[in-house]
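The passage that follows is intended for readers who have already worked through the single-chain material. We present the inputs for a multi-component assembly, then the predicted structure in tokenized form, and finally a short commentary. You are encouraged to pause after the input and sketch how you expect the pieces to fit together before reading on.
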Amino acid sequence: MKKRPLYEKVKETLLGRLAKDFWRPGELLPSELKLAEEFRVSQGTIRRALDDLVSQNMLTRHQGRGTAVAEHTPFGFFHLFRDDGVRELPESKTLRLSGARANRSERDALELAAGNRVIRILRIRYLNLEPKMLETLTLPQKLFPGLEKISARDLPNTVYRFYEQQFGIPIVGKRERLRAVAATPTEALHLNIEVDTPLMEIECVAFSHKRQPIEWRLSRCLTDEHYYCNSPE
Amino acid sequence: MKKRPLYEKVKETLLGRLAKDFWRPGELLPSELKLAEEFRVSQGTIRRALDDLVSQNMLTRHQGRGTAVAEHTPFGFFHLFRDDGVRELPESKTLRLSGARANRSERDALELAAGNRVIRILRIRYLNLEPKMLETLTLPQKLFPGLEKISARDLPNTVYRFYEQQFGIPIVGKRERLRAVAATPTEALHLNIEVDTPLMEIECVAFSHKRQPIEWRLSRCLTDEHYYCNSPE
DNA sequence: CAGTGGTCTAGACCACGGA
DNA sequence: CCGTGGTCTAGACCACTGG
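Having made your guess, compare it with the prediction:
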């Protein structure tokens, strides 16, 4: 029955607090010894839990300072770099936000049964003021009650924190699949390029802590002056 | 002077043995307690070293069985999957192998001084008997003495193990950069596609254990029936 | 069953950061 | 200086694997 390791329980509790903004981003959380006392486990167990959360980019640790809530960098999970290696701040504009019945691809990606509804969001992203990326986000409507009635202008730039804070859904993992594709006429128009220009397509499914699919994202980006990288540089 | 943690020393020693084929791939190495005794450290320290090597895909562990040398899967670091998620065995043919003075890009990628020589290898790779990928490998000649005189036919399909066993150079890390590009006439010819077809370009620098660049690899692949993925699926 | 890795504890000392 | 995380130890019990 209860074969789950202790550190998994600790992780789960801490994840819940992080989702609820129990601590602010950047804030130090209690020391390992304090947490060990609170959870009635040893420091080693706390350490194991914290290490796991650090490797999931939920926390950061600094010797002599403490363990802090990760400042979900302004880049978030944004993986495009300029050719010289410098990272640029992405800007985004939401073009459309609407609800609909999930189609076949969406049901497959989000593991939904037939008939479920989804929310579709179309965004364009800019790097250095140039349009570089067009992306479609698809969310299961039942997990985001009321989101379909929000104005496109009110959707924040970094949506993962938004999911956490407004809907209590922390994103802790993702699976990406990449392809090279040719720009469609619509994409060519938005990105100010010629039809059939090669684009990088990034298909990404984001998961909550128990591997439940939360978001299906299809991005198509221009890599004429940027490259994609998700390794630790 | 010597502030390197103990487990780092252990890792280094074990890595050296793995490179020398001290244990065969798939073979179990001594238990944690045996290793702890040999290295005169605690089991916890050995465990930490082994954990790190496991996360580098050098070892695999199974509760109740032991710790084994990773069977560098027939896929190696090959990251193309068929659209249905199935992994296919890549076949490769070496088209050319030659030595030359390193050009600017090669010196940058491999961190070489001007005047150094490199070995260039041009390969074509097949998936399900269809040509899907053209790649250029560039190696610092001084690290691979005699390799430039080898016949293209004698170069094995999986080169990383070859580097380890013939030249004592274990590859433990890599950095990848991806772009979408248009097929050149040469590539179109080899891959049996039209010029300007979108291709995924994978630029990969492979490192030895102390971050020394060993191989610069530029791959261009057709993603009409495959996708690229380097996350744990 | 014996032996393995997986978890957990309690304690020690060190290296670093900030007041 | 104190408190933090980083390393290391020694020992305990559990869960799984194989013969």
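Commentary: Chain B touches chain A at residues 81, 174-182, 196-201, 203, 223, 226-231, 233 (CB under 8 Å). Residues 5-7, 41-45, 48, 62-66 of chain B lie near DNA strand D (CB under 10 Å from a C1'). How closely did your sketch match?
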